[in-house]
Every structure is written in C-alpha cells, then in structure tokens.
Design brief:
Family: Belongs to the peptidase M23B family.
Number of helices: 4
Order of helices and strands: HHHHEEEEEEEEEEEEEEEE
CATH architecture of the largest domain: Distorted Sandwich
Structural class: mainly beta
CATH class of the largest domain: Mainly Beta
Protein name: lysostaphin
CATH topology of the largest domain: Glucose Permease (Domain IIA)
Strand content: 25-35%
Keywords: Hydrolase, Metalloprotease, Protease
Mean pLDDT: 96
GO molecular function, one term: metalloendopeptidase activity
Radius of gyration: 21 Å
Distance between the termini: 45 Å
Number of domains: 2
Low-confidence stretches: none
EC number: 3.4.24.75
CATH superfamily of the largest domain: Glucose Permease (Domain IIA)
Largest sheet: 10 strands, mixed
Amino acid sequence: MTMENIYPEEFGYHFSNGNFERIYRQTASVFKSRMSMNDFAEAASEFRDGTGRFQLKHQSQLEPGIKRFCWVDSGTERMVVTAFNDAGEIVGVQFDIYEKFKTDRVLTINRYHLPFTGEWFVLWGGANNFMNYHYPHKHQRYAYDFIRKEGGMAHSGDADDLNAYYAYSSPVTAPAAGTVVRVLDGIADNVPFEMNTEAPEGNAVIIEHANNEYSLLAHLRNRSIMVEAGDEVAAGDMIAQCGNSGASDTPHLHFHVMGGIDPHESDSIRIQFASGREPVQGDNVRGRK
C-alpha cells in the first residue's frame, strides 16, 4: 500500500467527509470500467446528503482475498457496504438502508439444532441485511444458507463440477422432532452458476414441529430425500443430502423456521438454537455428530 491509500477501517471517515475522488482512485480497474469518477461522486454525494458520521458496524470475509465492511449512519440508518481485496483495492461499494424489524424480538418457542453433521460455514445468516440477504423479505427474514469449506475454499478443483463442492452430498438432518408434512423431489441439480427459478426451493422437506412451527430444508440433492410425508422424525435423523437444486447457483443448504406450511405465505421466525448461541454470517459451526 502507498501512504495515500485508505485502509479499510478508515473508509467511514473519508466517506463522511466527502473524499469521494480519493476513494474512487483506490477502486479496482473493473469498478472504474463500470462507473466514472463523476458518476460515483454524484451518487455518493447524493447518498451522503443529510447524514452525520458513518461508523463501522460489521465486517466479514465470505471468500479468500475479499473482506466486506458495513458502515452505518445512526441518524438516518443509511448503510454503505464496501469490499476490499488483499491488495487494498476497493472492488465494490453499495449504498443501502440498514433495516431493522420489530419481529427481531420474536423467537421460536421450540429450540432447534443445526440441520447437519460436521463443520459448516454460515454464508448468509443474521438479523440485518448486511449479514443476511434474506432479511428484507419477511417470508425468509431469518433464513440461513450454509456451505462447507476446507482450507477456506468451498470446493476442490473445478468450480464447474458439482462433485468438487464439499457441501454437495453432505448429510442433512432434522433440526428438531416433528412430522414431515411436505416433500418436493425429482428436481435436477443445477450446473454450478445456473439457477432454476421456476422451482425456487428445489428438492425440499418441510417438517411440522410443536407449537405450530415448521422448518424448511431446501436445495437438496435430487433423489436423496429419505423421508415421506407423514413420517415422524427425531432431532438429528438424516433426511436427505445437500444439493444444488432450485434457486441455488452453487451447493448449499437453506434452512429457516416459519409459522405455517407454505414458505411463500408464512412469515419466518427468528430461531432459538439448542446450543444457546445464534450463528451469524462468517461463523464456522458444527452440527451434531
């Protein structure tokens, strides 16, 4: 880094003070090819208008070599998300609102286990829209996406090969005791980086639990589901394998709890975990053995 470069932790200060040209000079060439200096300065100035000071709220690393930072102005709840690579270049800047909802205070009555065995990584999860892209949408607000990593990577070898992903074919288990009430199966797994938006859940299992709570486990591997509607399951029972079906571009497990059987109509509920600890984006978590 040169002395003129902005360290990631300094970004909020420079943005709050309108140092947009200096910020832009540090953006990566791909960013510059998509947005001119004048356009960036105009958009940043308009977004900054009426704000106070942007403070660092969260940071995370979802992939090797890229760190993400969330800056929030507490007076207006405006949010700037930045991404820096290891060379200190700014590879992304996003302007948004840091949303919070009253439903954050409502937790599931039941306590749930993580729906897998072994160690997984929380790709998306948490009660804000920086850590969880599901959060603005009430039907998925408290949903999780889990992947598996080894050596910081989600796959070994060819990223276009489903079988190279550590999550693919990994066991998926029931998060709590209940009755299977819906099974979707027979949907082909996607080629990596393609999605089937016509069947967004892909292969999926919905389990009814006590207190009218329902869990959804989605994007399962085609023909891997081991249960049928009407089956009783206990926490930790294997029910399927992780896949890449539905609205999934690379293998991962989607999990959330909701107040009804229909994931498109039922509001999701913030989960109480049996461990007593709520996972958030960037955590490495371990399921039951």
